[in-house]
Each structure stands twice: as C-alpha cells, then as structure tokens.
Amino acid sequence: MASALLTTFRKKVKKYRNSYRRFLTRIEKKTPRGLDKIVAPLDKEVWKETNCLQCANCCKTMTPTYTASDIKRISAHLKMTTDAFKEKWLYKERSTGDWMNKKTPCQFLDLKTNMCNIYEVRPADCAGFPHHTKKHFKEWVHIYKQNVEYCPATFKLVEKMKAKMDNL
Ligand code: SF4
Ligand code: SF4
C-alpha cells in the first residue's frame, strides 16, 4: 500500500504535472541567466524537507541503468558471475544498449524499510539520483520533466523554482 506521503504526492502530480512540465520547457527554451546559482540553494532546501526513506518511489517505480563497472561491482558483492547476474535481474534496452532492471520494484529494495540491500555498491545512477546537482541544470531538464512525476524531491524543486521564477 502507498504511504501517506506518496498518496499526497500522486494527487499533486495529477494536478500540477502539466504546468510544471510547461515551466521546464520554458526554462529549456529561454534559460535565465545564472540558472545554476538560482537552483543550488533551492535544492539544499529540498533536501532539508525530504526523507527518501519515507518514499523510495524511484526504487519502486523506475529502473536504474547499470554501467559495466556497476555490474562487475555488484556481481562480485553478491558472489555471482556478471553473466549470471545479468541473466537473473537485467535486460538490455534495445534502443540505447543500457542494462536495466527486469522488474519494478527493484529486487534490491527492502519494501518494509525502504532501504537498499546493496546500498554500498548500488549503481552510480542510484547514487546520483535525482541528479539535481549536475553542473548545468539546463542539460538535464528533459530528465526532470520525466522525474517530476516519480520523484517528490524533483517535484518540490520545480515547485520552488516556479514560485521564484514564475514571471518567465
Ligand atoms: S539498487 Fe538500491 S538504490 Fe538502486 S533502485 Fe535498487 S533498491 Fe533502489
Ligand atoms: S530520490 Fe526522489 S523518488 Fe527517490 S526516494 Fe528520494 S524523494 Fe523519493
């Protein structure tokens, strides 16, 4: 069953998703000067207000991409060969060649605690998610447009940006 946090989040997504995506498209097309400097303090605020252990929606609904070194590291941690690891858990996305989880929620998520069972060796994609602090926000806007629907932290960041910059 979804937590209260996720139930509220899903209601807000339905209501605001389209307007937040339109806002991000405007940012993409006409990027305000100093955007990265505007985003950085807002992102800090977001993480003061966000507890991923009450959420884990990324692990429940999305798949990370696994690099070759992720696969090597995690397979070794699980004492499996890389081939056996891929065979058991992953598939190769045809269009991009990326290795992804076969299923959601992720097989490494503990659904009772929302903790990752391979946290120390998790894929780099998971460690960096939701990638708010990438050097140039603009280059990642297309990702945030997708993630606004899945990640309460990204949603909150866009909410704060919109409140601050809505005259765009
Ligand atoms: S590997 Fe861990 S952090 Fe990454 S999606 Fe799975 S449970 Fe989440
Ligand atoms: S990164 Fe986003 S989706 Fe993942 S647990 Fe944290 S708030 Fe939830």
Explain this structure:
The model has no long low-confidence stretch (mean pLDDT about 95). This protein folds into two domains: about 80 residues, no CATH class; about 70 residues, no CATH class. The chain is globular. The longest helix has 26 residues. α1 packs antiparallel against α7, α2 crosses α8 and α4 packs across α5. The chain has eight helices and five strands. β4 and β5 form a beta hairpin. Strands 1-3-2 form a three-stranded antiparallel sheet. The chain is mainly alpha-helical and about 170 residues long. The structure holds iron/sulfur cluster (SF4) (2 copies). One iron/sulfur cluster binds next to loops.
Cα Rg:
17 Å
Q: Count of DSSP helices? A: 8
Q: What is the residue-averaged pLDDT?
A: 94
- Tell the overall outline: globular
Largest beta sheet: strand ordering: 1-3-2
Percent range for helical residues?
40-55%
Instruction: Tally the beta strands.
Output: 5
**Domain tally:** 2
Q: Strand portion, in percent? A: 5-15%
- Any low-confidence stretches, pLDDT <50, length ≥5? none
What is the N-to-C order of secondary-structure elements (H for helix, E for strand)? Answer: HHHEHHEEEEHHH
The chain-level structural class is mainly alpha
Question: What ligands can be seen in this structure?
Answer: iron/sulfur cluster
**What is the CA-CA span between the terminal residues?**
39 Å
The largest sheet, given as strand count, sense and whether it forms a barrel, is: 3 strands, antiparallel
